[in-house]
């Protein structure tokens, strides 16, 4: 769902997008590509990684590493990887726990395993409908971003602004992914108490 | 510092406050009591717990259980315990880690160990200067609250409102303390990036 929504948004902005899946014949990816015209295509994770200049990790956090391994290291090398995933474990029901937290994070794990990739963590603290449509909220709140490569963050920030976002907070290096991912438990609780996923965190000063 | 600030605020609202410490001759507590007039007094943790109708846990999260054991079970029995502590571990330097997180929380640990106490977690997601002075920010943002006892939460909410807070979000039972405490890593990072502890989370919809 996150990949579908982000991919569709990127196409609306004129980018070519290739949706990766385990299989090039993934039905949902085929359907998405057919629906989104000439700029859209689909393929394996490796096809998508080889095609893209910027890669979005929109997989479930528990399988992100596997998906990135299937994408193949040489296809990712030197590229920006926008990591919007959360390491949520729903296997024991609600509320979900995190598969990695406290002194580590999914963002850091990915950066350690793919040292040649410029991992930029962002957008993981909100619903994908809001990611691509900040105007849905009167005050859309903040987007957090972190990563080790300043140039990569600047490029991703520019992409985020083109989605309509204005208030972006750079939290520093990729270790800030710990805090960004650990927001999820309160996000899940807020969704349940507010009865909607259409809300966001706004930092007030 | 948190106890000093909250105690001083409560006295300004006309409450009698007894500050508890390991020792009744704790110099900072004595100084605080002398400075704050007739409504202020100090004593051991047990003295303070026996004195109070509502108990505030303003200790460092790592020693909260020890302080509550020194406060003695019979002095706490049936009372509201407002837990504003965070289980932050600074022993390995910055950034701090959490001594308990993910599938448990300090709020829950306290509630399990003191089953006769009505634990209400709140205020842990902000600086104490903001807790007692929401007017310091143009938009003060939200206070989160959780706990198992609805009546206790209503009473604490009323106290929070008397501090000037308007936007209080009840996150449900005490297990929501997981999310509330796991906000701290991003809070610490925000403090560092914004250069001030005077900020807050506002939930925008």
Question: What's the helix and strand layout?
Answer:
The structure is a homodimer of 205-residue chains.
Chain A: H1 2-12, E1 17-21, H2 27-35, E2 40-44, H3 45-51, E3 54-57, H4 64-71, H5 73-76, E4 80-83, E5 88-89, E6 97-98, H6 106-113, E7 118-122, H7 128-131, E8 143-147, H8 150-162, E9 168-170, H9 177-182, H10 184-194, E10 200-204
Parallel strand pairs in A: 1-2, 3-4, 4-7, 8-9
Antiparallel strand pairs in A: 5-6, 7-8
Rg of chain A: 16 Å
Mean pLDDT of chain A: 97
Oligomer: homodimer
Number of helices of chain A: 10
What summary fits the major beta sheet of chain A? 5 strands, mixed
Distance between the termini of chain A: 34 Å
**Proportion of residues in β-strands of chain A:** 15-25%
Structural category of chain A is: alpha/beta
Overview of the structural elements:
2 copies of one chain form a homodimer. The first copy, chain A, is α/β, with parallel strands linked by helices. Chain A has 10 helices and 10 strands. The first copy, chain A, has helices spanning 2-12, 27-35, 45-51, 64-71, 73-76, 106-113, 128-131, 150-162, 177-182, 184-194, and strands at 17-21, 40-44, 54-57, 80-83, 88-89, 97-98, 118-122, 143-147, 168-170, 200-204. In chain A, the strands form 3 sheets. A 5-stranded mixed β-sheet of chain A has the order 3-4-7-8-9, with helices on both faces. In chain A, strands 1-2 form a two-stranded parallel ribbon. In chain A, helix 3 (45-51) crosses helix 4 (64-71). The A-B interface holds A 95, 97-98, 101-103, 137-141, 144, 169-172, 175-176, 178-180, 182-183, 185-190, 192-194, 196, 198-205 and B 95, 97-98, 101-103, 137-141, 144, 169-172, 175-176, 178-180, 182-183, 185-190, 192-194, 196, 198-205. Strand 10 of chain A pairs antiparallel with strand 10 (200-204) of chain B, so a sheet runs across the interface.
